[in-house]
Amino acid sequence: MNTTPEVMECLDDPIDLLQTCHEKATHFVSLLEKLQRYLRGVACPDDPAVETALQLMRYFDRAAPDHHADEERDLFPILGATLSATTDLQALMRNLSDQHRDLESLFAEIRPWLVGIVNGDVPATPAAQISAFTSLYRAHIQIEEAFVLPVARLHLQEMDRIALARAMALRRRFDQALAIENRMEPHS
After folding, report:
1. What CATH architecture is 5-183?
2. What is the value of pTM for the model shown?
3. What residue stretches are annotated with the Hemerythrin-like domain (predicted)?
4. Where does the pLDDT of residue 8 fall: very low under 50, low under 70, confident under 90, or very high at 90 and above?
5. pLDDT tops 90 at residue 51
6. Which position has the higher pLDDT, 96 or 170?
């Protein structure tokens, strides 16, 4: 069985994996800004710019939506059930979910620029969208790390963590989902 560090982290503690996802998102947000600066005044992108554009699309097309689903489909409902979802918590989780849609919409406006770079062009930079995207992403992560993750660490029980880990693993098609399921079986 192939066990990646990310899979092991998911198995050990899904809240830590969510934290790691935030660190990766922060990295890719910064990388987007660096690419924008790097390509100022450039007519034809070089290989590193093309590779960076590909990395950004891979991350924001797949990993970021998986992370949003981890929160919206799994973490937020578990927290809501565990904490009897106070009005403030419900409002916060709705706001964070709305921000996910805003981030996805902004990236959809940035993506054609990245595709152009991959195709050997440097189209007009969507500077306003990149600025809005990177600012919102950083603020979004800050809110989640200040409020959501600490609440999850304090209040999620072992079975909640296992259920969250299983859903996250299945979403990523990890073959280790079975290992998580085995942990859910009652011990004799």
Report:
1. Up-down Bundle (1.20)
2. 0.86
3. 14-151
4. low
5. yes
6. 96
